[in-house]
Amino acid sequence: LRQCKGDKFIEDVQMNRISRNENENNRHPNSSGETRMPVTKPVEYSNHLAVMAVADFGYDECVVKKAYESLQKSGSTEITGTRLLEAIFQLEENGRHNESTNSTEAGQQPFNVTQKAKQDNLKEANKNKSTEETTCNPDLELSIRSLEEENQNLKDQQTCKICLDEPIAIVFFHVVI
Predict the structure, then answer these.
(1) Which of 21, 22, 39, 43 is nearest to 30 (CA)?
(2) 63, 91 in Cβ contact below 8 A?
(3) Positive or negative, the Cα torsion across 114, 120, 122, 125?
(4) For 2-16, 112-126, 132-146, 155-169, which range has the lowest pLDDT when averaged over its residues?
């Protein structure tokens, strides 16, 4: 009920602010005398259950709105949380694809002298970092190795000696004689 009507409706009912007549006025008898609920109007973007659910996942409101609008433009009759998430993933994928295309196009454009110098400096800095990483401090390597050995010994102490797979589990039974 909370998902369909919302917290405001529940609060109004609990405070007796909604009378039975209001509920009955929403129903219209058809030609055969049956009472049916009116056709639902399109839900506003911010009040749509799927939008609220996806927003609860922490997605930015503008991203959710773009996905919602793209689903509406595609003619989707029913917008669900799953479809909305798929649309968001598709938008993110398209954004990544466009960024990679733009970066390759930018790489193909001619450079001026300052851009070329900046790029050369970045390449040189990357080369220096890679040579520093390959020549590690021997004391650091030794301490890392000793920590790894200690870690393995502790794991061995906590492993079952019969199956050599599961962690040790000791059970004590109280025996009354």
Answers:
(1) 39
(2) yes
(3) negative
(4) 112-126
Q: Which two tokens stand for residue 35?
A: 């009472």
Give residue-wise pLDDT tens across range 81-103. Answer: 888 888 888 888 888 777 666 65
Pair 30, 21: CB distance under 8 Å: no
Q: How far apart are CA 39 and CA 56, in angstroms?
A: 28
Residues 6+ positions from 15 with CB-CB distance below 8 Å = none
Q: Give tens-digit pLDDT for 109-145.
A: 544 455 555 566 566 655 555 455 445 577 888 888 9
Provide the 10 A C-beta neighbour count for residue 25: 9
Q: Which residues pair with 39 in a beta bridge?
A: none
Residue with tokens 């996905």: 67
Determine how many CB atoms are found less than 10 A away from the CB of residue 66.
14
- Packed helices 61-73 and 49-56: angle between N→C axes, nearest 10 degrees: 140
Owner of token pair 């000791």: 170
Three-state SS for 35? strand
Please classify residue 84 by burial: count the beta carbons closer than 10 Å to its beta carbon, then call 0-12 exposed, 13-18 middle and 19+ buried: buried
Cα dist from 22 to 11, 18, 19, whole Å: 15, 7, 6
